[in-house]
Amino acid sequence: FAMEGLDDKLILNVGGMRHETYISTVRAFPGTRLYKLTEPPPPGSPAAQGPPVREFFFDRNPELFSYVLGYYRTRQLHCPNDVCRDVLEEELAYWGLAEAPLAPCCWLKLSGRETRTQDFLSWEACENAHLDERLLLNPMEGQGLRNAWKPWLWVLLDQPQSSLGAKCLSLISTLFAVCALVIFFQETEVQLDYFSANFTPMGHGAGVGGNQQQQQQQQNNGLVYRRAPHLLYLELLCALWFGTELFARAISCPDKVRFLCSPLNLADIFCLFPVLVELVVGDKAERQPRLSLTLGAIRSLYVLKLVRLLGFLEKSLALRVLVHTLHSSWKEVCAFLLIWVAEILFFGSLFLYGELLGISTPGQSELHFGDIFTCLWWTVITLTTVGYGDIYPLSAMGQLTAAVTATVGMCTGVLLVPVLLVRFQRYYAVALARQKLRPSGIL
Amino acid sequence: FAMEGLDDKLILNVGGMRHETYISTVRAFPGTRLYKLTEPPPPGSPAAQGPPVREFFFDRNPELFSYVLGYYRTRQLHCPNDVCRDVLEEELAYWGLAEAPLAPCCWLKLSGRETRTQDFLSWEACENAHLDERLLLNPMEGQGLRNAWKPWLWVLLDQPQSSLGAKCLSLISTLFAVCALVIFFQETEVQLDYFSANFTPMGHGAGVGGNQQQQQQQQNNGLVYRRAPHLLYLELLCALWFGTELFARAISCPDKVRFLCSPLNLADIFCLFPVLVELVVGDKAERQPRLSLTLGAIRSLYVLKLVRLLGFLEKSLALRVLVHTLHSSWKEVCAFLLIWVAEILFFGSLFLYGELLGISTPGQSELHFGDIFTCLWWTVITLTTVGYGDIYPLSAMGQLTAAVTATVGMCTGVLLVPVLLVRFQRYYAVALARQKLRPSGIL
Amino acid sequence: FAMEGLDDKLILNVGGMRHETYISTVRAFPGTRLYKLTEPPPPGSPAAQGPPVREFFFDRNPELFSYVLGYYRTRQLHCPNDVCRDVLEEELAYWGLAEAPLAPCCWLKLSGRETRTQDFLSWEACENAHLDERLLLNPMEGQGLRNAWKPWLWVLLDQPQSSLGAKCLSLISTLFAVCALVIFFQETEVQLDYFSANFTPMGHGAGVGGNQQQQQQQQNNGLVYRRAPHLLYLELLCALWFGTELFARAISCPDKVRFLCSPLNLADIFCLFPVLVELVVGDKAERQPRLSLTLGAIRSLYVLKLVRLLGFLEKSLALRVLVHTLHSSWKEVCAFLLIWVAEILFFGSLFLYGELLGISTPGQSELHFGDIFTCLWWTVITLTTVGYGDIYPLSAMGQLTAAVTATVGMCTGVLLVPVLLVRFQRYYAVALARQKLRPSGIL
Amino acid sequence: FAMEGLDDKLILNVGGMRHETYISTVRAFPGTRLYKLTEPPPPGSPAAQGPPVREFFFDRNPELFSYVLGYYRTRQLHCPNDVCRDVLEEELAYWGLAEAPLAPCCWLKLSGRETRTQDFLSWEACENAHLDERLLLNPMEGQGLRNAWKPWLWVLLDQPQSSLGAKCLSLISTLFAVCALVIFFQETEVQLDYFSANFTPMGHGAGVGGNQQQQQQQQNNGLVYRRAPHLLYLELLCALWFGTELFARAISCPDKVRFLCSPLNLADIFCLFPVLVELVVGDKAERQPRLSLTLGAIRSLYVLKLVRLLGFLEKSLALRVLVHTLHSSWKEVCAFLLIWVAEILFFGSLFLYGELLGISTPGQSELHFGDIFTCLWWTVITLTTVGYGDIYPLSAMGQLTAAVTATVGMCTGVLLVPVLLVRFQRYYAVALARQKLRPSGIL
C-alpha cells in the first residue's frame, strides 16, 4: 500500500480516447484532480484493499484533455485554435486548473472569438431594434383592432420596401419633397434679386450716388419683394402633406423617444415652421429681410427628405454597418474632432504670427487677413487641402507654417482610415454572418 | 431486462474511433438517435432476449461525432473551424439534432465559409461569361464552316492577347484611334479660333465698336470657318475602319444584348455619327456653330477607344476584381451618389443663406454668386477639396459653413474606402483561388 | 539476434495514441531517436536476450508526433495550424529532428504567431509604463506618508477619469486654458491693429506721402500699443495656475525623464515664458514689435492644453493604438518625411527650370516666382493638392511638371495607408486581446 | 469464396489509427485502392485459400485518411484547414482518388496557402538578390586577393549600415550632396536674375522703350552672366567625388546590368554631365541661355542623392515591401496610368466643348483657355483636386463637367487603395515570416 513506483504508467480514458502517461508526470501539480488520482486511498476505504487502480474513465472532451495533459508534460498550457472560451474554462475548472496561466502565443486565440461574439451582440442589439418594430406587424399578436393599425401604419410609412402601398406612399413623399425643393430654389432667386437690388447699392452706391433716391427705391423694392402667392400656397400644400405624414409616423411609432432623437425626424419637424411663420407674419416678413433669410435657411432642411430615398436601398448591408460603425466609435470621432479643432487653433495662431514676423521686415506690406478668425478660416481651408487662394502666406515664415499645415492636413485624413476600417471589418463580418444564418434557423 | 443502470458506460464506435460515455449522458436529449439506443428493446424482439448491448457501430465521421457527444455532455453545440456547413448539417440531421442551436462563438465559423462560397459562385458566373465566349472558339464543337468563323472572328477582335493576328489588329485599331484623336485635337484649334474671332467680339465689341463692320466680319469668318477637307477625309477613313470593326464585332458577338449594353460599345457606335452628320449636312454645318460644337463634344468619345489598350493587360486580376467589386456593389455606389447629391444640395443652400445673412450687415457688399446653381457648383468644388477660388465665402457665417463643408467632404472620401475594401478583399481572395486551382484541375 | 526484417511493423504508443509504421519507414533518418529504436541492442545487454521489442511508449504530445511520423513517411515536415513555436521546437528536439527543414507552406504558420507574440510584448511594455504609475497608487505598497502623497497627486493630476476630484481639477484646468486662449485671441487683435497702423503705411505711404509725419505717427502708435493691463494680469493668473499644476505634476511624476521628453509637457513649460518675459521687460516690449510677436507665437502653445481634454476619452483603445503605431513605426515616418523633402526639392527645381525654359520663348513674360524657395513653396502646395493659385505654371513645360507633381502628390498620400494600416491592425488585435483577457485573469 | 456480405465491417489500420467502415461504403468508387481490397482474390492465389481478410494496414497519414473515408461515406471530398496542397495531392493519388473533385467550400483552403508560398518565393528572389551581394563579402569563398576587394568595396559603398567605415563614407557623400545642392540653389538665383533682367524687358519693354539700348544692355548682361568661378570649381570638386564613387560602385558591382537599370544610378550618371559640359563649353554657355537652363534642369538630379540617406533606415521592412509591391504590380500601375491619361483626355475634351457650348450663348464672353492643351492641364489640376483657379468653368455646362471631373478624380485616388493594400498585406506577411524565421535557421 506504499506509494507506487513513479515510473508506472497511468491510463486515462477520457471519453473513449485512451491517454497514457507516467504517474510522475501527473504529480507535477499537486491539488489538481489528476494529482489526486495518484494519492494512495485512505487506509480504511474499500479501494485501499485491492491492487492500485491504473485506469480511470472520465466522461469529458477528449481533445481538450490532450492540452491539459500537455500542461503536465511541458508546464505550458496551450489551447487549440477552434476552442471557445466557455468550453476551455469549464474544462480547466473540471481538471482543477482554473488558475493555470495560458501561454502567450495562445492569448489571441481566445480574444479573437471573444471580440467577435461581443461585436455580434452589439450588432444584434442594433438590428433587433428594427426587428422588434417589424415583429409588431404580426397580426397574430395584436390584441384587437385598436392596436392592429399602429404597426401596420408604421411599416407602411417607415419601410418603403415592405409592400406596394408603402412604395407608392414613399414615391408620393419623394415627389412632394422634390416639389418643395423646386419651390425653395425658386424662392432663392427672388431673395437674391431682392438682396442685390437693396443691399449692394446701399454698400457701393451710398457714397457715390444720391442717397435719397436710393433709399426710396429701396423701400419700393422692399414692398415689391413678395413671394409669388402661388408658390406660397404650393409650399403650404407640401407642408400639409409632410405634417400629416410626420403626425402619422409619430403616433404609430413604437418607440417615441428614439423617434424624437433621430436627426432626420427633427429635421422633418423643423422644416414645417417656415411656411407657418410666413403665413402668420404675413406681409411683415417681406419687410424684415433677416427673418426671411432665416426662414430660407431652415427651408434647406427639405433636402434631407431626399435621404429617405435611401430607404429604397434598405437592404444594403455595408451602409447599415458603416452607420453602426460610426455610432459605436463615437469616442474616436469625438477625439478626431477635438484634434481637428486643436490643429485649427494651433496652426491658425502660428500662421498669424509667422506672417506678422515675416512681413514686418519692410518690403511686402499688405496682409491678407485682418483678424485671427480669418486665420482660422485659412487653416481649415488648408488642412482640408481645399485651398481657395483668397488668403495665402506672403512671407517665407508664413509659407513654412502653411507647408507644415498642409502636410499635417493630408496626414490627418489618412490616419482616419485605419481606425474606421478595423472596426468596419469586424462589424461587417458579424453582420454578414447574421444575414446568412438567421434565415436558415441556425441561430 | 429492466432499464439498465444509468451509470453504466456505453461504447460508441463511430467510424473506428471508440467514444465512451455514460448512459445518463446520452439520455440528455430524448428522441435523438443516441437516446433511442438506451431505450429497452420491445419485449418480443430478439434483441430483448440477450444481455443489453453496450457497444454500437456507426459508419459516420468520427471527428464531428466528438462535437455531437460534447453537446450531450455540456449542452452546448460547438463545431470545428474547418467544418463545411453541408457536412455539419448532414451529421446533425443523422444524429437527430437538426434543431440544435449552435453556440454563439461558432456562428462566424460557418458564415465565413458560406460567404466565401457565395462570392466564389458570383465571381465564377462573371468569369464564365467570358469563358463561354472562349469556349466558342473550339473548332471541335462548330457544326460547320458557317458557324466556325464567328467565334474565330470574335476572339480575333475582342481578345488582343489571344494570337499574333489579334495583336496586330488591335495595334492597327489603336493607331487609328490615335490618328482620330490627333485630328480631333486639330479640329478643336480651328473651332477655338473661330469662336474667339466671332463670339468674343460680339460680346465685348458690340457695345463699343461699330456694329456693322463687325457683323460683316463675322459672316466672313463664318464662311471662312471650314474644316480642312483633308482632315475630314482622314477622319472619314478612321470612321470607316471603326465602323467595319464594330460591325464585325457585332455580328460575331455571341451575346448581342450584353454587347449593346456595354458602355464602351455604345461609345463606339455614337462616335461614328459626327463624321456622317458632317458629310450629310455639308457646308451648312459651318453656319451652325452649335451643331458643330455638339458634334465635337461627341467626338471626345474617341478617347474611350484608348481604354481598349487595357486589353493588352487583360490578365491583371486585381483590375478585373475591382470592376467586379464596383459592379456588385452598385447599391452602395448608388447610395453614395445619393448622399453626395444630398450633401451638395444641403450645403449649397446653407452656404447661400449663410452668406446672405452674414453680408446683409453693411460693410461688405458684393456676393460671389448670383443664383443657387453657382452655390451648388461651389459646394461640389469644396466637397471634393478642389477649391478653385472663383467663389469663396466673405462673411463669418459663410466661412463657418464652408469649413464644415470642407471637413465633411474630406471625410466622405475616407468613408468610401472601407466599404470598397472589404468587398474587394473577399472577391480578390476568391478570384486568386480560382486562378490557381482551375488550371490544375482541382476544381 | 540478427537485424529484424525491415517490413515488420513497429508500434509507437505516444501518450496513449498508438501509431503503427514499418521499421523501414523509421530508418529514413539515421541518428534520430526513432532510428535508434530499430538498432539491434548491444550483444551483452539484457535487452539483447529476449525477442526484439516491437512496442515503445513515449510520454509526449501525440498530435505533434503525427507530423513527426509524417516526416519519416513523406520526407516533408509540416506542422498543424495551431501549434506554438516553442512547443514545436521542443518536440522536434526531443525526437532528434531539431535541424529538420519545415516545408515552405508551413512557414507562415509559425511566423504569424511569433509576430503576434512580439507585438503583444511591445504593446504590453507600452501599457505597463502607464500601469506602473497606476500601481503606485496602491497605498499598501507605500512605505509611509512621505511617499504616499506622490502617486496620489500624480493620479489626481494625470488621469482625469480616476476620481471626481481629478475630474474637477481637469475641468478647472480646461477653463483656465480656454480663458488663456480668449486672452490670447484678444491680444492678436491689438497686435494686428498695431501692425496695420504702423507697418502698412511705412510700406505704401513712405514713397507717396510725407515721411516725417508718418514716422512721428508711428512712434505715437508705438507708445499707444499697450496690452490692456487687466488682460496681462488675467493671463498672469492663468500662468500661475499652469505653473503650479506643472510643478505639482513634475515633482509627483514617477519618471522624470519621460516627463521631460513628452512634447505636451515641454509645451506647458514653454508657454509660461511669454507672461514672465513681458512682466520683466515691461514697457520696453511694446517698443520692440519683434519681441512682442515672438512672445505671441509662443503663446499659441496654449492651444495644446486643449489636447488634455482627450484625457476624458482615455479609454478609447483605437487612439492609443494609433499613437503606439506611429511611435513604433518611426522608421517609416522618417523615411516618408525624407521622401517628402526629396520630392519637394526635386519637383521644385524641375518646375523652376521647366518654367524658365518654357517662358524664355518670347510671348509670355512674367514669372510667378522670384527665387527657388518660392518654387519649393509651390511644390508643397501642389503635392498636398492644396493649390492656392498664387503661383501656377504659365508655360507648357511648367504645366507638364505641375501635372506630374500633382499626380505624385496624390499617390504619396495613398501609399501611406497600407504601411500604417498593416501595423495598426496587428497592434489593435493585440491590444483588444489584452483588454479582454486582463480583467478575467487569464493572462 | 463467394463475395462476402456487404454489411460486413472492414478495419483499416492507417498509421495506427483504426478506421472501421462497412464494405458497402468502400465499394462506392470502383477502381480505387480501397475498392480493390474488397474484390475477391483470384482463385489460384494463396490469399484465396483462407478466410477473407478483414483488417488491412497502411503506413499513411491517419488524419487525412479520415477525409478520404468521408468521401466514401458522403461522396463529398473535404480537406482540413491546415493541409498543404502537396500532401493532399500525394495522399489522394495514393488512394487512387487523384481525380476526385474537392467540395467548393474547401477550395479556398488550398489556394490561400498556395498563394502565400508563391508570394514567399517572389519575395525570397527579391531579397536574395541583395543577399547574394552580401554573401560575396564572405572572405572564405574569395579565391584570392584579386577578387576579395570587390565585394568588400561594394558593401562599403552600398550598405551604409554594414560598418563604421561605410557609415563615414556615406556621411561624406551626403555632405557632398548637400554641398552640391547649395551650389545648385545659388546658381538658380543667378539664372533667375539673368532671366528677369534679359527676358522680361524683351517681352514687355520691347514695344515701349527704345530697342537699341535694350539690346545692348542685354548683351552686356549676357557677358555679365557668369557663374562665380569658385562655385564652378566647388561643384567640380563635388562632381569628382561623385564620379569616383560611381566608378568604384560600378566596377565592384556584382551585377552590372541591374546596376545600370537602377534609376538612382542612372541619375548619378546623368548629373555628372552639367559640370563637364560647362567646363568644355566654357564662356560660350553664358551666351546660350537655353543650354544653361537645360544643364540646370539636369542638375536637379542632385536631389536624388539625398534618397540614399534612406540607406540608413535600410532595415525598415515595410518600405522594402512597399517597393516590392509597386514593382510586382506594374501591370496595375500601368493600367491606372492608362486610365488616368484617358480620363484627362476625355474630361478635357468634354470641358472644352461644354464651355464653348455654354458660353456661345451671349452674355459672358472670355474663355479661360486658348487651346485644348490648356484644357488638359485644367483636367489634371481638377482630377488631382489641386484646383489652382487659373482656369475654371464659366458656364453652367462647363461647371457640370467640372463637377463630374472633380468627383471622378476624388474616387480614382480611393480606388487605388484596395489594389495596393491587398498585395501589400500579402507580401508583408511573407516578408515578416522570412525575417523572423531566417535567423533561427528554421528555413
TrEMBL record, chains A, B, C, D:
<dbReference type="GO" id="GO:0008076">
    <property type="term" value="C:voltage-gated potassium channel complex"/>
</dbReference>
<dbReference type="GO" id="GO:0032809">
    <property type="term" value="C:neuronal cell body membrane"/>
</dbReference>
<feature type="transmembrane region" description="Helical">
    <location>
        <begin position="400"/>
        <end position="422"/>
    </location>
</feature>
<keyword id="KW-0633">Potassium transport</keyword>
<dbReference type="GO" id="GO:0043679">
    <property type="term" value="C:axon terminus"/>
</dbReference>
<dbReference type="GO" id="GO:0005251">
    <property type="term" value="F:delayed rectifier potassium channel activity"/>
</dbReference>
<feature type="transmembrane region" description="Helical">
    <location>
        <begin position="369"/>
        <end position="388"/>
    </location>
</feature>
<dbReference type="InterPro" id="IPR011333">
    <property type="entry name" value="SKP1/BTB/POZ_sf"/>
</dbReference>
<keyword id="KW-0812">Transmembrane</keyword>
<dbReference type="InterPro" id="IPR000210">
    <property type="entry name" value="BTB/POZ_dom"/>
</dbReference>
<dbReference type="Pfam" id="PF00520">
    <property type="entry name" value="Ion_trans"/>
</dbReference>
<dbReference type="Pfam" id="PF02214">
    <property type="entry name" value="BTB_2"/>
</dbReference>
<keyword id="KW-0631">Potassium channel</keyword>
<protein>
    <submittedName>
        <fullName>Potassium voltage-gated channel subfamily C member 1-like</fullName>
    </submittedName>
</protein>
<keyword id="KW-0472">Membrane</keyword>
<dbReference type="GO" id="GO:0001508">
    <property type="term" value="P:action potential"/>
</dbReference>
<feature type="domain" description="BTB">
    <location>
        <begin position="8"/>
        <end position="113"/>
    </location>
</feature>
<dbReference type="InterPro" id="IPR003131">
    <property type="entry name" value="T1-type_BTB"/>
</dbReference>
<dbReference type="GO" id="GO:0042734">
    <property type="term" value="C:presynaptic membrane"/>
</dbReference>
<dbReference type="InterPro" id="IPR003974">
    <property type="entry name" value="K_chnl_volt-dep_Kv3"/>
</dbReference>
<keyword id="KW-0630">Potassium</keyword>
<dbReference type="InterPro" id="IPR028325">
    <property type="entry name" value="VG_K_chnl"/>
</dbReference>
<dbReference type="GO" id="GO:0032590">
    <property type="term" value="C:dendrite membrane"/>
</dbReference>
<dbReference type="GO" id="GO:0045211">
    <property type="term" value="C:postsynaptic membrane"/>
</dbReference>
<dbReference type="InterPro" id="IPR005821">
    <property type="entry name" value="Ion_trans_dom"/>
</dbReference>
<keyword id="KW-0407">Ion channel</keyword>
<keyword id="KW-0406">Ion transport</keyword>
<dbReference type="InterPro" id="IPR027359">
    <property type="entry name" value="Volt_channel_dom_sf"/>
</dbReference>
<feature type="transmembrane region" description="Helical">
    <location>
        <begin position="333"/>
        <end position="357"/>
    </location>
</feature>
<keyword id="KW-1133">Transmembrane helix</keyword>
<keyword id="KW-0851">Voltage-gated channel</keyword>
<dbReference type="GO" id="GO:0051260">
    <property type="term" value="P:protein homooligomerization"/>
</dbReference>
<keyword id="KW-0813">Transport</keyword>
